[in-house]
């Protein structure tokens, strides 16, 4: 792309995962991103200090203008005016974290494109990285959609799938987002700049599935279920392995044990699935450091010694 043909873009995003795509778009494809729109600073940590979103930190570091006000009707007008002054024609959204009104969506010449990390219409909603692993799917993908007033229901612009293996984790899926999404965005922009029509097609709502927000409690593995998985019973090992891979980093998986008449949490930090059995490798008792499962179980004898 030559400089005079570049389309001015506003990038909407907030968490660290969104930074990866932003960085790829700026450094890998050299798009003209003139404005960053992100969530307001929020109290964080034990001292509740006001903390910028990772996307804002990146924008400040790279001297890109930032709009970080909550989008109330009044602030929405300010944002629309700011984008007009900067002659922004397109918004790109990935993990922004706030609903965009029809008025805002209609304020830009080319509207807004959203990056959704699933093969829409499957896995609409907040947890598309997790559900394909939990459900044992053998593939997932990245979808670029034209944003409309309904969450994750806009027309599909482009889509690319990739496989999910038996050891694929959520982090593995996350690592695919920036390289794939940046290519989808760049190729679509090239078509736009060259005067080609951007063909889109509606999602089949009859095929839609939905995800929910994951909570810390979702990482619980009941002790009796874990015991079955260690013994290779009732296919529980497969389900726990999927949960372990899907909940990598957060919320993780854990069980509850009784020690000295006290209920404690036992984190399951590392495991394998072998011959339909869970092989626990590293655990972390509540309030203590990680330790090998064998060493811990020999001391506490929660499970039968092998």
Automatic annotation (TrEMBL):
Positions in coiled-coil regions: none
Pfam families given in the database record: Formyl_trans_C, Formyl_trans_N
GO MF term (any one): methionyl-tRNA formyltransferase activity
Domain of life: Bacteria
Keywords, in A-Z order: Protein biosynthesis, Transferase
Formyl transferase C-terminal domain span: 235-276
Domain Formyl transferase N-terminal: 6-186
PROSITE patterns for this protein: GART
Main enzyme class: transferase
EC number, as in UniProt: 2.1.2.9
Family in the record: Belongs to the Fmt family.
Name by which UniProt lists this protein: methionyl-tRNA formyltransferase
């Amino acid at each position: 792309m030559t400089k005079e043909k570049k389309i001015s873009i506003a990038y909407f995003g907030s968490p660290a995962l969104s930074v990866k795509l932003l960085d790829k778009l700026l450094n890998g494809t050299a798009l003209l991103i003139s404005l960053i729109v992100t969530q307001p600073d929020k109290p964080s940590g034990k001292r509740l200090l006001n903390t910028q979103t990772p996307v804002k930190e990146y924008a400040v570091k790279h001297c890109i203008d930032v709009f970080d006000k909550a989008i109330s009707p009044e602030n929405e007008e300010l944002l629309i005016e700011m984008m007009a002054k900067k002659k922004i024609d397109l918004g790109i959204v990935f993990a922004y974290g706030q609903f965009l009104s029809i008025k805002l969506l209609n304020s830009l010449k080319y509207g807004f494109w959203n990056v959704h990390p699933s093969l829409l219409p499957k896995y609409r909603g907040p947890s598309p990285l997790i559900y394909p692993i939990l459900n044992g799917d053998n593939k997932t993908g990245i979808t670029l959609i034209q944003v409309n007033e309904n969450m994750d229901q806009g027309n599909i612009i482009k889509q690319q799938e990739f496989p999910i293996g038996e050891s694929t984790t959520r982090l593995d899926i996350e690592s695919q987002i920036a390289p794939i999404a940046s290519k989808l965005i760049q190729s679509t922009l090239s078509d736009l700049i060259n005067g080609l029509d951007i063909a889109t097609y509606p999602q089949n709502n009859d095929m839609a599935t939905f995800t929910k927000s994951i909570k810390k409690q979702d990482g619980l593995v009941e002790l009796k279920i874990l015991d079955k998985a260690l013994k290779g019973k009732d296919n529980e090992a497969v389900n726990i392995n999927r949960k372990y891979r899907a909940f990598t980093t957060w919320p993780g998986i854990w069980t509850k044990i009784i020690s000295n008449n006290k209920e404690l949490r036992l984190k399951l930090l590392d495991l394998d699935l072998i011959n339909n059995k869970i092989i626990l490798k590293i655990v972390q008792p509540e309030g203590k450091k990680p330790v090998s499962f064998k060493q811990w179980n020999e001391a506490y004898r929660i499970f039968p010694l092998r």
